[in-house]
Write a structure and sequence with these properties.
about 45% helix, alpha/beta, 7 helices, Rossmann fold, globular
């Protein structure tokens, strides 16, 4: 199964991909979005892989605020893969009890920002090493299982792409300007 995993820098994309190694992930996002050449290279890789087909897209975000760049990344993926199911995995939810609380409390904010997901999962993919690793181990296993369940319930196949590079670059530029 091939899954597009996307989101900003340091949100947990690599941790999720590592814990769910039975899936093939293509990572998009997290690069320096102030460098237009980096964005072009990343987008060309995404467009190439999109033509091969993904069965699901996972938007990884860190619990906190909903940003313009987050919305732009979502819109780019939605534009390139209009028929794909998109799941949102919210990381750093370990301080909520239950972990899903922040997601539930902020559901209306996501829809106001045009972020419409097929499912949302609250997770904790804390460190594997160091003094606190044992504290996060149980939550990390639980989180990985929640994501696996979400993947199995939401997989589809979308090889159809639709892209206008000018529109995509405008979305990225607009987001970059709004973040300043």
């Amino acid at each position: 199964m091939t899954i597009l995993i996307f989101g900003g820098a340091e949100v947990g994309k690599s941790s999720i991909a590592s814990d769910l190694s039975e899936y093939k992930f293509f990572e998009f996002g997290g690069a320096d979005h102030t460098d237009i050449e980096v964005v072009k290279k990343e987008l060309s890789g995404l467009i190439f892989c999109a033509q091969q087909g993904f069965e699901l897209a996972i938007h990884v975000i860190r619990q906190g605020r909903i940003t313009k760049m987050m919305s732009a990344e979502y819109k780019i993926v939605r534009h390139l893969l209009p028929n794909i199911r998109i799941v949102c995995v919210v990381t750093h939810c370990e301080h909520n009890d239950p972990m899903i609380k922040w997601v539930q409390d902020n559901a209306s904010h996501f829809s106001k920002c045009g972020l419409v997901y097929d499912a949302m999962v609250a997770t904790c993919f804390g460190p594997l090493q160091g003094r606190m690793a044992h504290v996060f181990a149980e939550l990390r296993c639980e989180s990985a299982q929640h994501v696996r369940n979400c993947i199995s319930m939401n997989k589809s196949f979308s090889s159809s792409t639709s892209h206008d590079s000018r529109l995509i670059m405008k979305l990225v530029q607009d987001a970059r300007n709004m973040e300043k």
